[in-house]
């Protein structure tokens, strides 16, 4: 507990000194709802981790290709870290296009299908190296740039005028930092490194010609089931959430600076932090957002601490339990929302997203 308090204080001292592959049926929007004052997105490019990955990570590396992942959509495991659709699919729906094909499957998709964009996100990755041999954010953007340079799929810059990018990083850099047993005193400087490199990545995407870039804030990590199991999924860890707010504050500052420099509202903040909390606290007052009776409790959970969702023993016997109805749960597993969870989050974000896309 003392170390947590020290880390908490350290973060706030730092804050003070910083000055303050699947075709998506039924997830396509209509053209008339997405013209947004002349800006009609036609392509979505995605970079990030498991919150955005729709099938890039290899089967041998991930439980997302094991049952019961994908039971809601597409009805079988397909590489999404959920029972169904994830953040990428819902942002694609919002902008009115098909969810983009994963980079790993690009050679199996026709050129016409690739015109909707491409998803470069890999579950488990971060801004920096987290899990070898997974490509970090910089390498993912390298993949994107190489495709643009080749010119056989996208003709730049004309093809990117109506493009949107999603840059999703959900905390793997920080879990990696903690797993390395580095001293807590190094954490503030590491947070700044993560945000600074994110800013470099955002500048690079804009320089490549992407018109709009959606940048999610970190979700309340202290509310993830992997943390709240300690309270029988009853309470969030507020110390961890306070630390997340530091990351989000610095990231917001970076985005404001970038928009001021280029004199345009190119970079859009997606406030996942408050959207998650709004859904958790919904008592029916927020239209479109499901009221979850136990929002911190996952639908799919290992039978003991040594097992995860999708785990089986050497005889193939399941070592996990699954709830009766995934639609009744916000979280699918220890850290990822269900399809219904993501739908509710994007219902909360809809108004602010619309306003942000209207800005020139």
Automatic annotation (TrEMBL):
Transmembrane segments: none
InterPro entries, A to Z: GDSL, SGNH_hydro_sf, SGNH_plant_lipase-like
Residues making up the signal peptide according to the UniProt record: 1-29
GO MF terms, alphabetically ordered: hydrolase activity, acting on ester bonds
GO process terms (BP): lipid catabolic process
Keyword Cell inner membrane among record annotations: no
CDD domains documented for this protein: SGNH_plant_lipase_like (cd01837)
Keywords for this protein: Hydrolase, Lipid degradation, Lipid metabolism, Signal
Keyword presence, Electron transport: no
Family: Belongs to the 'GDSL' lipolytic enzyme family.
Protein name: GDSL esterase/lipase At5g03610-like
Organism whose genome encodes this protein: Brassica carinata (Ethiopian mustard)
Taxonomic path: Eukaryota, Viridiplantae, Streptophyta, Embryophyta, Tracheophyta
